[in-house]
Structure to design on (237 residues):
């Protein structure tokens, strides 16, 4: 199997860097191939816009999603977008490696999603969620935080981590059809003792050894929603 790690940290010696190194080594040792989009090193432009396309379908009125759909049909995405889309389609496992910034993705990684998960190519025409383009493939968030686990517990000050990650795990990854694995979170890495950090890396390696058999998050399937796109009575959310 083949994995793509989209890595969003500028410092190679950071803990995020150590997590990506751990992932590469573990996945390769367990027989998989790996490629990495190291977004800062690539100087990836995270701002979606007209430069995403070699030609515009409507030069008089720019509408990003419409242009993405047209570019899918006409194969007119810019080279940097095409390169990432090809990596995405090659992957059986997609990993986002990032530090939690403002309760979400660093802008460079959010922009990667904006530009690469293009309309028409990765969703549209009834292809979404359990009928999504990437169904049968798996995705994993691997992240570090500044705050401790308790502050992200269901009654914690910052709110439940599962709620914070919902826009990414459900709104991006499951939206395009991935089975989303439970996230791996290394809490408060800057304030952790060295031994705790080493333990995080060991635990992450163990998690990656079972990525093909780990039970994904139990997001409902499309047939569990009614015609108004609300969960049918009796289906738990
Ligand atoms: C703009 C911004 C917004 C933020 N928003 C939030 C937020 O909303 N919520 C929140 O909780 N936090 C937030 N933070 C904090 C941020 O999430 C943390 O600073 C980040 O997760 C720490 O990860 P790092 O890889 O940068 O750690 P680093 O500081 O790089 O690493 C931590 C320690 O691990 C050491 N280390 C490196 N490699 C290894 C190794 N192999 N083994 C053991 N130790 C190693 C490093 O030397 C360092 O001492 C924010 C920070 C910024 C800048």
């Amino acid at each position: 199997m083949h994995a793509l790690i989209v890595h969003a940290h500028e410092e190679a010696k950071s803990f995020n860097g150590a997590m990506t190194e751990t992932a590469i080594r573990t996945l390769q040792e367990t027989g998989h191939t790996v490629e990495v989009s190291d977004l800062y090193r690539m100087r990836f432009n995270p701002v979606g816009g007209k430069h995403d396309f070699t030609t515009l379908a409507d030069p008089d009125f720019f509408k990003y999603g419409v242009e993405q759909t047209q570019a899918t049909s006409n194969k007119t995405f810019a080279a940097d977008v095409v390169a990432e889309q090809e990596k995405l389609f090659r992957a059986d496992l997609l990993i986002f490696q990032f530090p939690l910034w403002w309760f979400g993705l660093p802008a460079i990684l959010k922009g990667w999603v904006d530009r690469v998960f293009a309309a028409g190519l990765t969703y549209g025409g009834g292809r979404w969620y359990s009928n999504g383009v990437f169904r049968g493939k798996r995705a994993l968030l691997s992240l570090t935080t500044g705050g401790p686990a308790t502050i992200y517990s269901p009654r914690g000050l910052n709110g439940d981590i599962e709620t914070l990650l919902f826009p990414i795990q459900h709104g991006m990854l499951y939206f395009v059809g991935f089975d989303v694995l439970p996230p791996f979170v290394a809490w408060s890495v800057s304030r952790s003792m060295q031994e705790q950090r080493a333990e995080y890396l060991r635990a992450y390696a163990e998690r990656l050894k079972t990525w093909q058999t780990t039970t994904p998050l139990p997001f409902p399937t499309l047939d569990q929603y009614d015609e108004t796109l609300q969960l049918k009575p009796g289906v738990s959310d």
